[in-house]
Design goal:
The complex is a heterotrimer of chains A (410), B (428) and C (89). By secondary structure, chain A is an alpha/beta fold. Chain A is built from twelve helices and 16 strands. The longest helix of chain A is centred in the first third of the chain and has 17 residues. Chain B has one domain: 3-Layer(aba) Sandwich (Peroxisomal Thiolase, Chain A, domain 1), CATH 3.40.47. Helix content of chain B is 33%, strand content 19%. Chain B has 14 helices and 16 strands. In chain B, strands 1, 2, 5, 6, 7, 9, 10, 11, 12, 15 and 16 form an eleven-stranded mixed β-sheet that branches. In chain B, strands 3-4-8 form a three-stranded mixed β-sheet. In chain B, helix 3 packs parallel to helix 6, helix 7 packs across helix 14 and helix 10 packs across helix 11. Chain B is globular, with a radius of gyration of 20 Å. The relative contact order of chain B is 0.19. Classes of the chains: A alpha/beta (410), B alpha/beta (428), C mainly alpha (89). Chains in contact: A-B, A-C, B-C. Strand 6 of chain A pairs antiparallel with strand 6 of chain B, so a sheet runs across the interface. Chain A: Its EC number is 2.3.1.-. Chain A: It comes from Actinacidiphila bryophytorum.
Chain lengths: 410, 428, 89
């Protein structure tokens, strides 16, 4: 097996499902214009909960997009993942049935699996009895369900995987996909998707004590703003087609969005050790892995927790690496809410689109606090040549991941 | 430049019938079973009422009341197993560069037991659609997203390097350790605390396997209900537990005079892309994973001394796996002992792959292969040497351990003693 | 609903609810003697279907019933045999 640790791994296809747009064209059009997808929760009545806003995906007609046999056995998150994968393949000009089956793998991130499906079956169990639990429960809710269903639907028999590192997972999955491609797999579908906007998922999310209790969609999720007071959760994410560059060129891929050039991951030190949080180290490792200097980075897609302490930590990490106001920073997830394992994958896809079109998407509604000393791309998009972007993601409990995506000359 | 080699220098186990790797190995080599009637809740409403439960006292094992409160049972297992592994490794974690130490923990179903209990509370026994957050425990988010398992182990180890949970169903335990080994090999970490944990014995898990008749209905004979490769097998027995390892780069381990317990010589995973729960009889994708793992280890089939089977005890798994081993090892399959410890410790879903790695490491150390308990009536279609009933003294230098799971994941790992020369004749 | 006969219509409804339908199969066609597999229903779909029938009709099918009954007609016969021996509650 040809392990090529220097093989260049590139993004050739995007499949996006986001609260402000289904499909990459719709999403990108909304995102570059600053159109957000946050509103009062419609899927259930949120009145009894302290937080009532979410980024929900409207108009997703799974029944029209997927085989009827798949619908009863899948949670919403899996339907979104399957359809996004279809879109990513289409974008990449790949017909999976024409690819050698062991040359394709799928690595996804998950954070809470098919949680809504799980709620239904827990309810069946406790209100009616064990005999009422679905035959699909054994897999429809679990964390591996998206990778499993994607591989089955598309006949992908190569290496597959699933990582869970909360919101950092979207980048960790892509790093694992790159690893598999470097070990010889030609193509890996990777990214993350989450959709746990159901009452039981909501109660779990509330327990993080990080949700915004604002009822104003325009003022609810304000990363790096002096008025930051928590975030709005959302549903969705992105699946990306990743390929070995040579292989992509050989088959005449319609486009190469960019190269996954660098990756770094760290875990924060235990509280009370006095050691620096791990985000800066993750950035440095990713830059080093990409062989780039801070000055080579044209934009940072920040994690943007919108919890003041966490915003401070992130602003300091960016400041230490790039200098005060040393690099444009944007948080387009202010328009979608935080998508758990889908968030960083979506940021990565957004970075690819920003590179393609020379536009840095905005961070609507946010007036950055001066103390952070960030060059935040505010309410309006910024035209700029983007040759390399840094995507940051942090997971609850101390996970930090960073990916450098770089333009790839044809 | 020769590639970095990865070795196991610490082993920790929490298993039914034995907390700690010593008790675990004793159970296996005596061929005793730890399966019993479920005691955690009244199992009488369920089709399958048997499980392999661990007698686990978190407080006695050194967890603080605060840790116990915030951690699901599976996370508690992982931390206890990790502590044993770290102590076993003799590593002084204090002096290490924290960013070069990472954590990978496998789990198929995360905090499913904690979630089951909490759901029951916040829904008032399933009555409320709009479940009531005011009854939720403060740490519910740690149950919602099981990356908390890796976080707890990282905190216990002071690790600040790459940290994640791997959740590929029932191959999670192999995939987590395989993933960690790759991180060391590529240079992203020098030390990994890696393993897997699951504590799935809860009503929702029992009910979901009942619904597909995957677990055994042999409720009258819990001690002999797990019967891999036996013609009377009728489903797996749910288990729980954890195994965690300290992984290091071989050169560094040697330099510090570590007791190298085994080398992770090869690993691969493939998908069957066939069915979420079903297996095709030909075992093709598992055979491919085995082939690639042997390639990575630079060995041929003849080098395999023992196969640690997935051997779940379902009708289709045991035949699928037998076919896969024959397909990949050829005639050598018939000469190689192959056993399933699930006959004794049950099937702990995502954890079992790591627990089976622990059994493989111990087999290498002791030159003893554990038996397949309860194997009295051979299945004519499972015609390999499954080491029935009693452990066997057997020169064991190289072990193949395999796993297969829902979602179609098929994984294989080759472990070798790090005694003497390297596999495939490479020199150290 | 003990005491009620199990019909093809009931089976089709339960199949649709529990397992959906394959796009290239017309469940309204002549399917009584078509293998479930040819109708796009594999073992898992049949387990879900069997569970729903058991709950709705208050019967307990043998473990082997669903593997032995390979067509709608066979399954309907098995279920009706159970119904005739199960006293109405």
């Amino acid at each position: 097996m040809a392990v090529r640790s220097d093989a260049r791994v590139v993004v050739t296809g995007l499949g996006i499902a986001a609260p402000n747009g289904l499909g990459s064209a719709g999403y990108w059009d909304a995102t570059r214009r600053g159109v957000h997808g946050i509103g009062r929760i419609a899927r259930f009545d949120p009145a009894s909960y302290p937080a009532t806003l979410a980024g929900e995906i409207d108009g997703f007609a799974a029944e029209e997009l997927l085989p009827g046999r798949l619908i009863p056995q899948t949670d919403r998150v899996t339907r979104l993942a399957l359809v996004s994968t279809d879109w990513a393949f289409e974008d990449a000009g790949v017909r999976p049935e024409e690819f050698p089956e062991f040359d394709m793998g799928v690595v996804t991130a998950s954070s809470s699996g098919g949680f809504e499906f799980g709620q239904g079956e827990l309810q069946n169990l406790w209100s009616r009895g064990g005999a009422y639990v679905s035959a699909y429960q054994s897999f429809a809710w679990f964390y591996a369900v998206n990778s499993g269903q994607i591989s089955i639907r598309n006949g992908m028999r190569g290496p597959s995987g699933v990582v869970v590192s909360d919101q950092a997972g979207g980048l960790d999955a892509v790093a694992q996909a790159r690893r598999q491609i470097r070990k010889g797999t030609r193509l890996v579908v990777s990214g993350g998707m989450d959709a746990s906007i159901c009452p039981w998922g909501w109660v779990g999310l509330l327990a993080s004590r990080r949700l915004s209790t604002s009822t104003d969609p325009a003022r609810a999720y304000l990363p790096f703003d002096g008025a930051a007071h928590g975030h709005v959760p959302g549903e969705g994410g992105a699946l990306l087609v990743l390929e070995d560059l040579d292989s992509a060129r050989e088959r005449g891929a319609p486009q190469v969005y960019g190269e996954i050039a660098g990756y770094g991951a760290t875990f924060d030190p235990a509280p009370g050790t006095g050691r620096e949080p791990g985000l800066r180290k993750a950035i440095e490792v990713a830059l080093d892995d990409a062989g780039l200097a801070p000055g080579d980075i044209d934009v940072v897609f920040a994690d943007g927790a919108a919890v003041p302490e966490l915003d401070r930590v992130e602003a300091e990490a960016i400041g230490k690496v790039f200098g005060p106001r040393g690099v444009p920073v944007t948080v387009p997830k202010a328009m979608t809410g935080r998508l758990c394992s889908g968030a960083a994958a979506l940021d990565l896809a957004t970075a690819c689109l920003a590179m393609r079109d020379g536009v840095i998407p905005p961070t609507p509604h946010v007036t950055p606090a001066d103390t952070y000393d960030l060059d935040l791309v505010g309410a309006r998009p910024r035209t700029a040549q983007v040759r390399a972007a840094l995507v940051l993601a942090r997971g609850y409990g101390g996970f930090n991941s960073a990916v450098v995506v770089r333009a790839c000359d044809r | 430049m020769s590639r970095r080699r990865v070795v196991i220098t610490g082993v920790g186990v929490v298993a039914p019938g034995g907390i700690g790797s010593k008790d675990f190995w004793q159970l296996l080599t005596e061929g005793r079973t730890a399966t019993r009637r479920i005691s955690f809740f009244d199992p009488s409403p369920f089709r399958s009422q048997v499980a392999a439960e661990a007698d686990f006292d978190a407080e006695l094992l050194g967890l603080t009341p605060h840790q116990i409160r915030r951690m699901d049972r599976a996370a508690q297992f992982a931390v206890v197993a990790a502590r044993e592994a770290m102590a076993d490794s003799g590593l002084e974690f204090e002096g290490l560069e924290p960013h070069r130490t990472g954590v990978t923990i496998g789990s198929a179903v995360g905090a499913t037991t904690g979630l089951d209990q909490e759901y029951r509370t916040v829904s008032d026994g399933g009555r409320l659609d709009l479940v009531d957050h005011s009854y939720a425990v403060p740490h519910l988010y740690n149950y919602l997203v099981p990356s908390s398992f890796a976080a707890e182990v990282a905190l216990a180890a002071g690790a600040e390097g790459p940290c994640t949970v791997v959740s590929t169903g029932c191959t999670s335990g192999l995939d987590a350790v395989g993933h960690a080994a790759e991180l060391i090999r590529e240079g992203s970490a020098d030390i990994m605390i890696a393993g897997a944990t699951d504590a799935p014995i809860s009503p929702i898990t029992v009910a979901c396997f009942d619904a597909i008749k995957a677990t055994t209905p042999s409720n009258d004979s819990p001690e002999s209900a797990s019967r891999p490769f036996d013609d009377r097998r009728n489903g797996f027995v749910l288990g729980e537990g954890s195994a965690v390892f300290v992984l290091e780069e071989l050169g560094a381990a040697r330099r510090r005079g570590a007791h190298v317990r085994a080398e992770i010589a090869g690993y691969a995973t493939r998908s069957n892309a066939y069915h979420m729960t079903g297996l095709r009889a030909d075992g093709r994708e598992m055979a491919e994973a085995i082939r690639v793992a042997m390639d990575e280890a630079e060995i041929g089939p003849e080098a395999i001394d023992y196969v640690n089977a997935h051997g779940s005890g379902t009708r289709q798994n045991d035949r699928h796996e037998t076919a896969a081993v024959k397909r990949s090892l050829g005639a050598h399959a018939y000469r190689t002992p192959m056993s399933s410890i699930k006959s004794m410790v049950g099937h702990s879903l995502g954890a079992i792959g790591s627990i089976e790695i622990a059994a493989s490491v111990l087999a290498i150390e002791h030159d003893v292969v554990p038996p397949t308990a309860n194997l009295h009536v051979p299945d004519p279609e499972c015609d390999l040497d499954y080491v029935p009933l009693t452990a066997r003294e057997w020169p064991t230098d190289t072990v193949l351990t395999v796993g297969s799971g829902f979602g179609g994941f098929q994984s294989a790992m080759v472990l070798t003693s790090a005694r003497g020369g390297a596999p495939g004749g490479r020199t150290l | 609903m003990p005491g009620t006969a199990f019909t093809l219509e009931a089976l089709k409804r339960i199949l649709l609810e529990g397992a959906g339908a394959s796009e290239d199969v017309d469940l309204d066609g002549d399917i009584l003697d078509t293998d479930f597999e040819a109708l796009g229903y594999e073992s898992l779909a049949l387990l879900e279907t069997g569970g729903r029938i058991e709950r709705e009709f208050g019967i307990a099918l043998d473990d082997s019933a669903l593997t032995v009954a390979r067509t709608p007609r066979a399954l309907i016969e098995v279920v009706n045999a159970h119904l005739s021996t199960t006293p109405a509650a």
